Amino acid sequence: MTKSICILGSTGSIGVQTIDVATKLGIKVVGLSAYKNVALLIEQARELDPDILCIGDEKYYTLLKENFPDKIVVTGQEGLISVATYPAADLIVNALVGISGLVPTVEAILAGKRVALANKETLVTGGKIIKRILSQKQAKDSIPVLIPVDSEHSAIFQCLVGEDKKNIKKIILTASGGPFRGKKLKDLQSVNVEDVLKHPTWNMGRKITVDSATLINKGFEVIEAMFFFDKKCDDIDVVIHPQSIIHSMVEFIDGSVKAQLSYPDMRLPIEYALTFPERGKAVAAPLDLVRVKNLTFEEPDFDTFFLLKIAYECAKKGESYPIVLNAANEEAVKYFLEGKIGFVDIMKYVAKNIESHRGQKVESIQDVLEIDTETRQKFKNLVEGEKS
Ligand SMILES: NC(=O)C1=CN([C@@H]2O[C@H](COP(=O)(O)OP(=O)(O)OC[C@H]3O[C@@H](n4cnc5c(N)ncnc54)[C@H](OP(=O)(O)O)[C@@H]3O)[C@@H](O)[C@H]2O)C=CC1
Ligand SMILES: CC(=O)[C@@H](O)[C@H](O)COP(=O)(O)O
Ligand SMILES: [Mn+2]
């Protein structure tokens, strides 16, 4: 079992829950990173006494170092990589948000680390390159280098224990449907940030909560599943399941379907990633299906939530398309949370960015980062251009 971990993004939703699980399991946290929430990072470091601390934003470095003169205190991208590759950690938990998670994942893998991956943007943007890097690495044991934390992928991973991947017919990802399930585009014109952040079943960071409302989160998860489980997007379905009790399913060639169920609590997939191939008993409340009563299912509304359809198209085209999808979406969500564009504009501008994109081959992480930067610039030009 894992004995020591570093947590990248320890001050976020997944980061904080990882600390809870690790503490309950008696796992030592040897490294922490945050971007700008230095107050919480200091509090966490006082409690956990790690060896290495990283603050992304350099302006907080001095404050952090003054508080911990005897620890390794690092900053910036280089500092983040020092935590991602820290020698004393058995496993790195990547709980960063957005493309900021990509390079640390790659560096951790290259340094021979196992990674519990919550940061889905890593595989959305860098899946092709990471797959190549993993194929060149010698497996040390039967435990995969990348272990899923995203609840759906953890569910599938659990359903596949003891199974041969060649017997998978289909992966069925469940989606809550978000706060606007059943609504049409005309109903969404005037929704505000507060409405969008009211997720019906999960309590998560702001960016992923907005992604759940547009359903692009599920599109990203289709792409994430392609890389985790080596499947084509045509073999991955999405079904709306408003209760978020079934976290995903696998249909096998004989017609049998396996599912993983629990109350919606991210600490369970986090615990599974930390204890795999064993199971812990640190966190989950026992599931009472009589109390839950109804498990219901619906078709996704691809017309209203058209970014899900676009995500499938990007998944099929591969190469630069998922990178552009992710970068345009990250910018759009940022603009929306800053009050600069409306909710429907997120979907509209991401769609426009994809429409005008001419695919490019992707051969390296450098290519990924260049396409990401170009797309963000193009996005800004598009939005600012339409405003003036
Ligand atoms: N939250 C959830 O329940 C789930 C999340 N996920 C995925 O897990 C990942 C994390 O999500 P979540 O915990 O909600 O996100 P949060 O926004 O809550 O946390 C993000 C963390 O990353 C840090 N961070 C943000 N930007 C940067 C940057 N540019 N460089 C370095 N560090 C940075 C933040 O630091 P600071 O606090 O200092 O800003 C914070 O610690 C995402 O990819 C998400 O899609 C998947 C399934 C469920
Ligand atoms: C908890 C988790 O894994 C999220 O990715 C979740 O799936 C979001 O909810 P939606 O199903 O609404 O996208
Ligand atoms: Mn998920």
Number of continuous helical runs? 16
Residue windows where pLDDT falls under 50 for at least 5 positions: none
Quote the distance from N terminus to C terminus.
57 Å
CATH architecture of the domain at 4-148: 3-Layer(aba) Sandwich
- Ligand set: NADPH dihydro-nicotinamide-adenine-dinucleotide phosphate, 1-deoxy-D-xylulose-5-phosphate, manganese (II) ion
CATH topology of the domain at 4-148, what is it called? Answer: Rossmann fold
Structural class: alpha/beta
Query: N-to-C SSE series?
Result: EHEHEHEHEHEHEHEHHHEEEHHHHHH
Shape: globular
Helical coverage, percent range? 40-55%
**What order do the strands of the largest sheet run in, or round the barrel if closed?**
4-3-2-1-5-6-7
- Number-wise, the strands total 11
CATH homology superfamily of the domain at 4-148: NAD(P)-binding Rossmann-like Domain
Average pLDDT level: 97
The largest sheet, given as strand count, sense and whether it forms a barrel, is:
7 strands, parallel
What is the alpha-carbon Rg in Å? 20 Å
Strand-residue proportion: 5-15%
* Name of the CATH class of the domain at 4-148: Alpha Beta
Domain 1-deoxy-D-xylulose 5-phosphate reductoisomerase C-terminal: 146-229
Binding site for 1-deoxy-D-xylulose 5-phosphate: 120, 151-152, 176, 199, 212, 217-218, 221
Keywords: Isomerase, Isoprene biosynthesis, Magnesium, Manganese, Metal-binding, NADP, Oxidoreductase
Family: Belongs to the DXR family.
Written description of the protein model:
It is a single chain. By secondary structure, the protein is an alpha/beta fold. Among the domains are: 4-148, Rossmann fold, CATH 3.40.50.720; 324-383, Rna Polymerase Sigma Factor, Chain: A. It contains 16 helices and 11 strands. The protein has a 7-stranded parallel sheet with strand order 4-3-2-1-5-6-7, sandwiched between helices. A 4-stranded mixed sheet has the order 9-8-10-11, covered by helices on one side. Helix 6 (121-135) runs parallel beside helix 10 (216-229) and helix 6 runs antiparallel to helix 14. The protein is globular. The protein starts with a strand and ends with a helix. The structure holds NADPH dihydro-nicotinamide-adenine-dinucleotide phosphate (NDP), 1-deoxy-D-xylulose-5-phosphate and manganese (II) ion (MN). 1-deoxy-D-xylulose-5-phosphate (DXP) binds at residues 150-152, 175-176, 178, 202, 208, 212, 217-218, 266. 1-deoxy-D-xylulose-5-phosphate is lined by residues 150-152, 175-176, 178, 202, 208, 212, 217-218, 266.
